[in-house]
Design brief:
Length: 324
């Protein structure tokens, strides 16, 4: 009897590798859900819906966008983290928010963003930009730093909320320049941008897609961009890294799954996403939002996420923000 059980177990172990690829080869056989942990209308939502439409065509199954906003993106990410790892629940969110939550909210989250979520592809990369109220008497990053130091604690520096990417980018800027400004948190990027346009706030690190219309209309003054070097789209605008070496940050949007999805499925999804980034419709959306696609393979994207968790964790610790 024991010998028979042992033989059956051995047969199951031998056959298992055959069954998994066969299942993955047939994937997908039904519609998929793409969780977007942000409200409709934002850059992550627009990019997600466009990518979902293109993937629906290439995979032969509908991908339905499911907006689950709340708790700085952690609500939707949590839903994905606890989903069945069968490849039918996927996630698109900005990498910084997820990386920030891994440190800032590690005590209250009921999942570990690093262990519970599998990075698949990075379809969109976009920088943040340093913009100021047009009437502020500064025309460069250096002049802004000088102005803030001459007026300690008085320069109203906006953010889209406590613990947001815009807040922590400001905290890093403050730490590395030695300025003392007045942090003014708003309930989202739109109110923060509106406050800057009105002059209620006077400086802000914004995701570029939200700032571009106001920059073009001269409602905001464009001082710097958080790329390693100047963008060919704005060659006269310096990279912040020219003044603060290594100051490179962005609002990159990643494509993820719950951890545990078979490798054959995640590999196929990676390939399909990367093909979709070359679709003219997707390229048009990226261009409209001043973003670009990435050439990262899956291993490089995983390393990018790990690097983001490490770098944002350092910013949080250095800023003295309370971890909850």
């Amino acid at each position: 009897m024991k010998a028979a059980k042992a033989a059956s177990l051995l047969l199951a172990i031998v056959l298992l590798p055959v069954f998994v690829p066969a299942s993955a080869q047939q994937y997908p056989t039904r519609p998929m859900r793409l969780i977007v942990p942000w409200p409709p209308g934002g850059i992550t939502d627009v990019i997600s819906r466009t990518l979902g439409q293109i993937l629906s065509e290439s995979l032969g199954q509908q991908i339905v966008a499911d907006n689950r906003p709340g708790a700085a993106g952690t609500l939707g990410v949590g839903i994905a983290a606890h989903a069945n790892p069968d490849g039918y629940t996927l996630l698109m969110t900005d990498v910084p928010s997820m990386a920030i939550s891994a440190t800032l909210h590690k005590k209250t989250l009921n999942y570990d963003p690093v262990k519970a979520i599998e990075p698949i592809a990075l379809p969109s990369r976009s920088p943040t930009v340093l913009v100021v109220y047009p009437k502020l008497p500064v025309n460069s990053i250096q002049e802004l730093i000088k102005y803030a130091k001459a007026n300690p604690g008085k320069l109203p520096f906006a953010s889209s909320g406590p613990g947001s990417i815009t807040h922590l980018t400001y905290e890093r800027f403050k730490s590395e320049t030695g300025i003392q400004a007045l942090h003014v948190p708003y309930k989202g990027g739109s109110p923060a941008t509106a406050a800057l346009v009105s002059g209620e706030a006077q400086a802000y690190f914004s995701c570029i897609s939200a700032a571009i219309p106001h920059i073009k209309a001269k409602r905001l003054k464009f001082l710097g961009i958080t790329l390693p070097k100047r963008s060919p789209l704005w060659p006269d605008v310096p990279a912040v890294a020219e003044v603060i070496p290594g100051f490179v940050m962005g609002c990159n949007t990643g494509f993820f799954s719950p951890a545990g999805v078979p490798a054959q499925i995640t590999a196929r999804l990676h390939n399909e996403v990367m093909k979709a980034t070359q679709n003219p419709r997707f390229k048009a959306v990226l261009t409209q939002n001043a973003a670009e696609s990435s050439t990262f393979n899956q291993a490089q994207f995983k390393q990018h996420v790990a690097d983001e968790v490490k770098s944002w964790g350092k910013v949080i610790r250095d800023s003295g923000l309370k971890v909850n």
